[in-house]
């Protein structure tokens, strides 16, 4: 198990794969950020208080921006919908690239990586569509747990008891979503080990079988890489908050830190899927 974790962690550092991840994350971000940037630039660039507003926004500036944002909400909403659609369209491409890289004995060059991603796109797209069913069920169950916790909170005397029930329900809902996401990644790993299989439902069901057969390796790999990635990303996010984007050096540093956070999240997802593919290959 240790060898699977170490090999997956190192293999997930393939620069071509991470560069493809960064590009696919950056495109939807730009699609949403450009209208917001134009809105902020039109309101703040020509202000006599621009240097001070670049460091912190006062109440008056926030009120003015809220008014303008309300008028421009349809355009920003359209940009947000376009960014979401582009993210969903690129997600199977990224999953296909990870599957192709995990299956290859050596690191793939860009052409082979993109060819493998495109070849896997239909199966990964079907898995993305099927994900709506288990994720929707998990969200529905999580909302039911939160409603039950709120109902319990109205019957207790101490506010702390109500708060603890809500926190427990929220934690259970988050764990449900993570568990469903694990089964979906296990399904992708099952599809990666059998190119003949085209059904997303059958692949997901086989992923459930992988979880039932090897619960220890599957859960530990997923949990370790998730915790490591989130802790590292949170640490970088705290560092990013300490860098005010005032001046060219600070702006470049803030941009690099933001991209590094995206790469860490990408490494986390790639490493998890690499580990699950290796476990699935052992089960075959």
From TrEMBL:
Transmembrane segments annotated in the record for this chain: 79-102, 127-146, 166-187, 219-239, 251-271
Keywords (A to Z) from UniProt: Membrane, Transmembrane, Transmembrane helix
UniProt protein name: ABC transporter permease
Organism of provenance: Pseudoduganella plicata
Lineage, uppermost ranks: Bacteria, Pseudomonadati, Pseudomonadota, Betaproteobacteria, Burkholderiales
